[in-house]
Amino acid sequence: MRTASVEFIVLLGAPLLGALAFTLLRERSWTPQANIAFSGLTFAAACALTARVIGEGSLTFANEQFFIDPFNVFLVTLTAFVGFTTAIFSRPYMRVELEHGRVSARRLRLYHSMYQLFMATMLVALTTNNMGLLWVAMEAATLSTVLLVTLYRTPASLEAGWKYFILCGVGIAQALFGTILLYFAAEKVLGAEGVNALLWTHLDAVKGELEPTVLGLAFVFLLVGYGTKVGLAPLHNWLPDAHAEGPTPISAVLSGLLLNVAIYAVVRCKVLVEGSLQTDLPGRILMGFGLLSVVLAAFLLWRQRDIKRLFAYSSIEHMGIVAFAFGMGGPVANFAALLHMTVHSLTKSAIFFAVGHAAQKAGSQLMDDIRGLITLSPTVGWGLMLGTLAILGLPPFGVFASEFLILTTAMKQQPWATPILLLALGVAFAAIFGRVQPMVFGETTAKRLPHPPALLPVFTHLALVLMLGVFIPPYLADWYRAAAQLIGGG
Amino acid sequence: MDGLTLDLQILNALAALLLLLSFAMLAQRRIVRLVNLFALQGAVLSLATALLAWRTGDGQLYVSAALTLLLKVILLPWLLHRLIRRLEVYWDTEPMLNIVGTMLVGLLIVVFAFGLAQPITALASTATRSAIGIAVAVILLAFLTMITRRKAMSQVVGFLSMENGLFFGAMSATYGMPMIVELGIALDVLVAMLVLGVFFFQIREQFDSLDLNNLESLKDEDR
């Protein structure tokens, strides 16, 4: 045990310092580069921390208020990585938005400082050991993104921002009640420890002694609360609006990262509750919510006309798959769910990068207005096409591997759910592929943009997803296994 | 329940007052008075916390009481009044359910809340455990206030009142959450309020009104 380490201080300090610097200083020409630099520093710290954890095992910091274990370390790295690539993407993208007059320099300053603050809150949520601080960080993550969703000040974006704020606010209030109940149960067992009674590691050690009735009740509130943020149906109402109306880099981090953090919170709670109840009831509830989300999202995909909304619904579908897999539990399903979280995060943010450029070229987010990307810009066209194929679960991409694992496990553990999942995946495939195909290959009359798109992030992400589909590096697989073990269930 | 000491009796009276204020908020359509009721609820909450702190000799609860007083009685109502004056929203429109109907639903909710709190009350060992049901009722009544209102401002006051209920729940079940968590929650509430202030001006600029009926264009069918 140690009080702190350099890597950890940099990991949380870099984005916080960035947020502060962007708030105090005026928007300059180099601000986007500074944004990339801060994100890059965070990513470097995350990598260093990962190397440490591989060498030394789990770590705790600051009187055990923060910790790194196999479950959160890979999410920290993933979050820092996607945060870094999104910052790279955001530079040319936001410059074009500025030239189009959709944002002013003053709003860009808000954008950059909130972007860094958002990163910081997600990293705090992932690394905190204290279930109360987890709640505080989750709420702060919502608050820091509300003004980003409304950045364009259009009526639709204001509506989306309000919905996001109030629905997630009410949702997260339920989670606070759940946390209070958790503390109530914990105090009975860990009473003497006082302040430490909400530390996850301490709770995990005594989870068998926690009062089952109280924890059962707590789980309902925690699941509804954090589930709202995951976008589990029927609590998903805010998600498509918030993800579609904000600037595209924000859509990418909301879909790719914040959903992961929310489901991380749900799983942390599930581990404790399952240990206390000694039944698979929490898993069953999670499976039910997950399956409902997959099916509902798959059918709602057909009704979308806005490309960002289409992929926002696709995020609900994939979060449903992840929730279902964590609900099933057991080493294989957990492994698959963790892999799915990783590949979904990488693929979905890559798609949003490509979609952002496509929508900028077409001057519209309506799918009917976007045509012939392959002639306008082959790289954007192929980026969108490959990303779409990857997210739809075509081999050899990583999404195929994780979905295949989830389906085969479902056949063994929950045979009744397999046909429902297959049907939903088929429906989603037809809906998304049918929309994206004419957008990429159709006829067009639009002109090329003066700025070259930043497509390095798109293809880096897709290459990683491809690699995870073909070959998972041994140390990564070990991590996943260790995390899957930690989550247990099944 | 014989032999209740005076301080416990006062605490229970304050809890009852809290519930009464929730009902008053449910019925109040003038936004200025709604904010005043919210401030009063905060004051009662702060008083109850201070009394409990004196009873248990828990220093941390004194800090909580001071924090509540500062945040919920002084700072937030001041911010809200300022917003109301600058945005000139004084009246909420006709609620979706009339006042009598809302009150009846509210009564049912209180019964439900006590049922929900039953298992927790049975397990609690704090002197204030009988108030847990009231805390749950305050949370749910605030929720009802939110869903029956049309104006963004009244929904926000409902939201803040829900936070009051949660705070009171934590206090009566466990004598409050760990300090670091409570500070974090207070910070979140404050930031939420500031974000909302900015946000309201944006809505106002765009729609010239804070009526949420304007915010209903994002439907799946036509997007």
Description:
The complex is a heterodimer of chains A (490) and B (223). With 490 residues, chain A is mainly α. In chain A, helix 1 (6-24) runs antiparallel to helix 4, helix 5 (131-149) packs antiparallel against helix 6 (155-190) and helix 8 (212-230) packs antiparallel against helix 10. Chain A has one domain. Chain A is 77% helix and 1% strand. A two-stranded antiparallel sheet of chain A has the order 1-2. Chain B has 223 residues and is an all-alpha fold. Chain B has one domain (10-214). Helix content of chain B is 77%, strand content 0%. Chain B has 7 helices and no strands. In chain B, helix 5 packs antiparallel against helix 6 (152-174). The model of chain B has no long low-confidence stretch (mean pLDDT 83). At the A-B interface, helix 5, helix 6, helix 8 and helix 9 of A face helix 4, helix 5, helix 6 and helix 7 of B.
What topology emerges from the helices and strands here?
The complex is a heterodimer of chains A (490) and B (223).
Chain A: H1 6-24, H2 31-56, E1 59-61, E2 66-68, H3 70-99, H4 105-127, H5 131-149, H6 155-190, H7 200-205, H8 212-230, H9 238-245, H10 248-277, H11 281-300, H12 307-328, H13 331-362, H14 373-376, H15 378-391, H16 398-413, H17 417-441, H18 456-470, H19 474-487
Helix pairs in contact in A: 1-2, 1-4, 2-3, 2-4, 3-4, 3-10, 3-13, 3-19, 4-5, 4-10, 5-6, 5-10, 6-8, 6-9, 8-10, 9-10, 9-12, 10-12, 10-13, 11-12, 11-17, 12-13, 13-15, 13-16, 13-18, 13-19, 15-17, 15-18, 16-17, 16-18
Chain B: H1 6-27, H2 31-56, H3 59-87, H4 99-123, H5 132-148, H6 152-174, H7 179-207
Helix pairs in contact in B: 1-2, 1-5, 2-3, 2-6, 3-7, 4-5, 5-6
